[in-house]
Request: fold
Amino acid sequence: MSATNLPVGSFVRIAKPELQTLIDQLRAMGYRTIGPRLSQGAVIYDDVDSVEQLPRGWVDQQDGGFYRLQPQEDGAYFDYVVGPHSLKNFLFPPRETLLQLSREQDQWRLHAPAPPDPPLAVLGARACDLRALWVQDLVFVEVEFVDPAYQARRSNLFVAAVNCRRAAATCFCHSMKTGPAVVSGFDLALTEQDDHFVIETGSERGGEAVAACPWTPCTISEIEAARRAPRELERAMHQRAPRERQDLHKGPPLRSLDVTDLRELLLNNLEHPRWESVAQRCLACANCTMVCPTCFCSTVDEVTDLTGDQVRRERSWASCFTAEHSYMNSGTVRKSVRSRYRQWLTHKLATWIDQFGVSGCVGCGRCITWCPVGIDLTEEIAALRGTMP
Amino acid sequence: MAAKPKLAVFKFASCDGCQLSLLDAEDELLAVADAVEIAYFLEARTRTLEGPYDVGLVEGSITTAHDAERIRRIRDQCQFLVTIGACATSGGIQSLRNWADVNEFISQVYAHPEYIKTLATSTPVADHVIVDFELRGCPINKHQLVELVAALLQGRKPRVPRYSVCIDCKRKHVVCVAVAQGVACLGPVTQAGCGVICPAYHRECFGCFGPKEQPNLASLLGHYANRGADAVQLVRLTRNFNGYAPEFREASDDLETAAALGNTPDAPS
Reply:
């Protein structure tokens, strides 16, 4: 059964191999399609033009400073969770030329930045990814000074999101109330079932894309089953034992974060001895900020050739963990690693709320997994609360 | 037009790889030759001009009494002195002799040990004279070298960051080998600049660019030890091209001391 379009809020089912038709249709609509791919021992976001490229049948084991993929027999398409990349890698790319100047016969000529990239369609984004997207929108678009390149990429972005059926030990979206269910900000929301996908349309173009696939209407029970899957996961995450009672659990600690008065907890404990002990472990390597899907700091450099006739203004990802980040005319303000870790965590979980009205943390757990020494912000908060064993 | 700045390149105990990086900058080499007077560069041209020089690039470490004397004369001749590479900046791989008996090495390596006159140590140039700028790497990165020359010509600070290799890995979308493969990688304590060559080939960082700003080796190596790396492996990893750089040196000495006492180094908890 097919139609020219499907209204917003439709629930349809497609057979699993028909994911290919969806990808083909998105490409026909002019999108560059990106999605999860196996690369370098991890699931990352990269170009996807065939369902064969998806990491089907792989799941991830994650813990502080630990990430491994394992094969799983049921051959599910989306049962891994988040990898080191996020949508930030595409919407706020690590390097971007903002401006180019060239000197010709003592006259400077200004060149416009490169034209916008082709519109992106992302397949497989999770609820925490969508929340992070919204948090970055508040930084780059919903402000007085709009970032035009981000805005151009963002306004054209097509999101085919996926409801998580599984959480990693590092996931704590349930604590941040950012997942695992996909509830808004999507064009399509997929829920994987044993032999089919249930797809909810969230926009007109979403309806246009899925209408090209051989779909059938969902029965009420299929819709209910699709809605139930992430809710059941969320319930299971809420039932995770507190950290101090996880001794019997053989695997890594299952994270959760008590957000009660979190802003006040942090801002009332700026001199807590825990900052010094975490600084003993912190490498100030900046991995946490690079993988964080909401961290938005950048540095701008003027880059010249040898003659000085060709000049580019380049923006690159930067981090509050470097000495350069707080360098002013009198020198580096945050000289100690203690002060940098405290700055990062208090901004992420407390003063971000003052600045943008929401927390900067989406509970994806990337900063825990990709810290080379496994520093865990949920553990640090528990220590500040005095609820550590 | 004012006379072009005079550039000189000097060699001490080294493999010549860093000088080659200048010749290897093929796309920019003619522009460099246009912008500066290459006054002394034995590896590139036989003609040499007398000093003084505006800029001196020094490759290699100080390993003989003669070299210790020569670097002082070179310092006097150069307005701006830059060390290039791990040897000149931290003593190089040859500083392994600093932990051993150099006479033992000499008797094993040379047919006629009596011809060899050498110091007991290999030390960085900055241990002997004041150095104005250090370019890291084994070898140096040609883009950083060209950037240095451009900055000197334009009278600005070179863009040579002191942060970790990890930042460049993430900017290049290279997946962390320490986390995803569980290998002991020095990237989190090593200065960026190499272009993340090894992690891009799924290999650990060997620390060619030396310690980053405020490196925390105790935490990183303690963590690797807790995850099963043995002390001998970690000492070898740390005591490498930049093994004699102070932060790396202290870390490998601490590991050795702990191993001799039969202790496993613990990460701070």
